[in-house]
Amino acid sequence: MQSKFYSPGDQRAENVHRLFATIARRYDLLNDLMSVGLHRHWKRRLVKMAGQPARVLDLCCGTGDLALMFQARVVGVDFTEEMLRVAQTRSREIVWVRADALRLPFPDDSFDVVSVGYGLRNLADIDAGLREILRVLRPGGKFLSLDFGKPEMPALRRAYFGFLRTAVPALARLVGSDPEGYTYILASLEDYPAQRGVRDLMRAAGFTDCGFVEFVSGAMAINYGTKPASPEIRR
User: Fold this and answer.
1) pTM for this one?
2) Which of 14, 107, 166, 217 is least buried, going by the fewest C-beta atoms within 10 A?
């Protein structure tokens, strides 16, 4: 599917920035409508899987709804100023930082958990992003990523992609958001390796204990992995 906000090449980061700057004001409302509120349940599941970390980096934090669910010292990072402005109105306890996920401004071994909610798919280079996440995790730290998945059953995948192609842009139009912004979801998902491919990329980057938990027959998934105690990070 074509989207003016999606390009797999050198313009990827710039286009993603334009997209989220455009939809920031209606982002949370559209998430609730698209998932019938279930995205909140999936995010709570991710937080539960994280255990009881002391320091959390919520990467691609957007408006901050996932970051707010952690009972920890949280740093929220996003590279879209418009999204961070919304996040800053929701909490003064969380440290909000504008930064590129591929060049994080943190030392090695800084966080017990790195979480991503619907952001890994948007990185211009997922391999580089995973290596950077591994770098800032402490040994034994966890990485958890919630994102759109790809159902294995062909008929279900066709139905799901049809919903993303037609119903989601229509919902965006209904609430006064840019429907073109929501054609991006399917366009980006078609090229995204999804839960099985991300698991393999995580293993290749140096994570251990990699796997995923699926929801709605694989339409959504949480990928997870651990930084080994003596990591051999591939630079």
Assistant:
1) 0.86
2) 107
